[in-house]
Structures are given as C-alpha cells and as structure tokens.
C-alpha cells in the first residue's frame, strides 16, 4: 500500500466551506488523494498552542488532565497523562456488530480529518497528516457499526484511533481484517504517539454519522429520481388501462401556485419523462382527476426532496462546525467545555426522512394496487388460451409482487417510528440525554433499501403492463380513446421519450428473467440495477436541467 500517484484526483481540505456531496464523492472513490492545505495546517498549529497553554496553566480541563464522564472532576496525575491517552482509546474501542464497508470507513476517517481542520480539536498538525496518510495509503480501519448513542460516535472513532496507535484491525480487500500494526507497517507508517488530550480529540466527534450520512444523502437523491420515474411509468399504464394519467396536477401552473421546495422538481421530472407521448396529446379523453396517489404525488415527492435539503444542510453544519468537547477556542485562547458533540439537528433530519419515505411508499403501493386488475385479466386470457393441451404462457412478472410491495410498505411504516427517543441515561446519570443519531441513520439506510425495492416493483409492474397493453381489455376512458389499447409505444398511443426508453429497458429485463428462470428476488435486483444505470446515464447526458424544466436536483421549472 503506497501513496496514490501525483496524477490522481485530489480533495483539498482547507479553511473554505466543504459540501456534503463533495465529501461523499471523495469518500466513495479510493483513488482520490486527500490534501491538507497550508492554511488548514496553520489553524491546526494555532489550535494546538491553545492546548499547550492549558497544559502549562495547570488548570483542570475535561479530558486533558481529568477522567471522562462521571470521572470528570477526578484529576489525572501528570506522570500518567501519556499512558492515559492509550487507556482512553482502548476503553472506547468497544463497538460491536458488523463492520462498515470500505467507502463507509473512508467516509468516517475523512469526516474526522475535516473536523480536525476546523480548529476546535486541538490535535497537532502531524496527527492530522497521519489521518490523511491513512486515507491516501488505503489503510481503512475495521469499524464496528454499533456502539454509539449519538453523543459523539465514540466507539466507531476509537476503532480508527486504535489503528493509528498500532492496535485495532484494518480492512483487507482479500479476506478478514488484519492487525492494525501489520497494516501500518505494510503502508510504511509508524504508529502515532499521542500527545496529551489527543485521545479524547480523536474519539469525541460524530464522524460516523456525518460521513456515512453524506454517502446516504447521495443514495436518497437518486431514490427521489427513482420515485419520480416509477410514478411516470404508472401514469402511462393507468392511462392505457383505466382511462387515467391526467397531467394537469403536474402542470407548471399548479406548481407555481404553491412554493413547496422540491414539488416543482418532481412534477418537472414527470413532465419531461412523458414528453412527446400520448399523455400530452390534446383532446385525449382522460378522467378529470386521478386518485390522490397520482394526483398529489408532486406534493408528496416534493416534500421528500425538501427533507433532503434539510439533511444536506444539517450535514454541512456538522462538516463545517466544531463539534469538539472541550472546544479549543482560537478567539479566546481557551479550552471551553460544551455540548457541540450532540448532533440533534442531524439526528432529527434522519428521523424525518424515514417518515417521508413511508409516505412515498404509501402512494407507490396504492398505485401498484390499481395496476393489479389488468394483470389479472392478462392471466385469465393466458389461461383461456391454454385450453385443449396448449402450453400455458409464462408470466414475465411474478404475480404476487404486489404482496411483496405491501410487506415492504409495512416495513417502511415500522421504520418511521422515532429512534432518537430511546437512549437511557449513562455514566452515573451525567450523560442523561443522547441523540441516537447513528441508530436513526441506520434505520434510514434500511428504509432506503425497502423503498428502492418498492419503487422498483412499481416500475416493473407498469413496464410489464405497457409491454402487454394489447393483451387485456381496456375500460373507461381508455376504451373510448381508441377502441382498446394497442401495444405500448406504437400506433396512436406512443409513450413519452423518457418513459419509453425506461420501459424498453425493463421489458428486456422481464424477458431475460422469464427466459432465464430468474427468481422474483433476482429479477427485482436486476431491474433495480438497470434503473440505477438508466438514471445515471440520464443525469450524465442531460445535466441538471432540460429545456428549462426541472431535472433531478436542478432548479424547479415555474
């Protein structure tokens, strides 16, 4: 393991404001080289001078020359200060559960390094450089996922600090974790000898919640686009089978009438996806109003996008703030006890998003339910055609995916319950409130996983019906609009350019699943991967906006 070549992309940590999306991108790409600017190193040097003056003053400073938690008023003898640094790391290295993956571990270390650079920790410049070398030489600590109650991610960061001092374990790409000392030696690094006060500075932050939260933000932004895409496909399908698909609720006029951040973005996404298709044709005989799961979808999807903005803001407050205790205050030259390690804003953002995802899931499952009757008619026709010994046509879409969707919705509703209210009091009732931000984050990760599956089921269901639109009898306005549905994307009822492209991809996935005998689970995974690829290609090819309309995270069309 060696430093990345000079030509590798770099991520500069200076004194300027950093953005969550940039941090996530750097954490996700192991080829990115992390660089500390001279200005950041200067801030670190001045911060350490404050710590040194506190040491020389002989005054009690929490964690510098006292014990921690309920031992806050018990002094540590001067001759034991250096040994105490090792004890602090070992004591807090108590995490349990599965290990963070490589990107999550990198994000955690990177977030802590950024925290050092803000000047509140009081670590030496060489300590910050050491953390940068861990990242640049691919030494990623094996970090247990569980153990933090959200009043600093103590156990996760202690797993990092343990590796820094030559202990702990390091992730291996080829097998189980390896001892930290061996990994440091292989990377050409000597273990870090901690200076007074540095042990607490290394562990007293919320870098797991911040770093992994930044990674999750990117996933949730993509999830918002996936929800819009599934909705657009369902609009196309309900237009052909049930006379629905009214685009009036997605009009620019409706969005301009109520300034909800994100609402116009989702509505614009849908309009762009269906552009050029039958849903836009003047005089199409559609119901005057669809069910609320269609008609109020811009409001529901838009509120979720607004919540994503709140999460991004909370992450950037933490990334660019000083969450240390004690805080090394450069302005006064003092070390100040405080509670900035309590990331309540971030924890509540994680909480709220799970509730928002549950509401998206309710609408998605209801749309899937409304697409079930035409599936039943198609199966009945296939069964009738199999009389007199004829082979029964194989169904490309597993028949009870709707039930799987219902189960996923139940999971989303359960996960929407508060997580941050459950922490007991700790450390002899001194630590009598905690945010449980890590638990709220982990529950949100589970919610994102369930929601991705749910929206994929919706998209698959709609795509299947659109591919078999000639196999079932239309009802209502759909029958009046052409005497019965023809094949999707052809004749008088073409799909929109965007929905047509997505439908064609999913139709291929369905055909491959039928011919290859894929299980429902494997089919769902393949469809989800294909949808992610399609959305990534669309974002790359079209940028943030298209013909003045909103796309993805772009500006809302008015």
From the structure above, extract its key features.
single chain, 558 residues, mainly alpha, two-stranded antiparallel ribbon, 10 strands, elongated, disordered C terminus
What this model shows, in words?
- Strands 1-2 form a two-stranded parallel ribbon.
- The longest helix is centred in the middle third of the chain and has 36 residues.
- It is mostly helical.
- The C terminus is likely disordered.
- The chain is elongated, with a radius of gyration of 28 Å.
- Helix 4 crosses helix 9 and helix 14 runs parallel beside helix 17.
- It is built from 20 helices and ten strands.
- 55% of the residues lie in helices and 6% in strands.
Give the ordered list of helices and strands: EHEHHEHHEHEEHHHHHHHEEHHHHHHHEE
Tell me what portion of residues adopts beta-strand conformation: 5-15%
The main β sheet shows up as: 2 strands, parallel
Strand order of the largest sheet: 1-2
Q: What structural category arises from helix and sheet content? A: mainly alpha
Distance between the termini: 52 Å
Mean of residue pLDDT values? 90
Name the poorly predicted regions: 472-490, 544-558
Individual helix count: 20
Question: How much helix, percentage-wise, in residues?
Answer: 55-70%
Based on CA inertia axes, which overall geometry fits? elongated
Radius of gyration from the CA trace?
28 Å
Number of strands: 10
Summarize the structure.
By secondary structure, the chain is mainly alpha-helical. It has helices at residues 20-28, 38-57, 81-92, 102-117, 125-136, 154-164, 180-186, 198-203, 207-242, 252-256, 263-274, 292-295, 297-320, 344-370, 372-385, 401-415, 437-467, 476-480, 497-516, 520-542; strands at residues 10-13, 33-36, 96-99, 144-146, 169-172, 175-179, 327-329, 334-336, 545-546, 549-550.
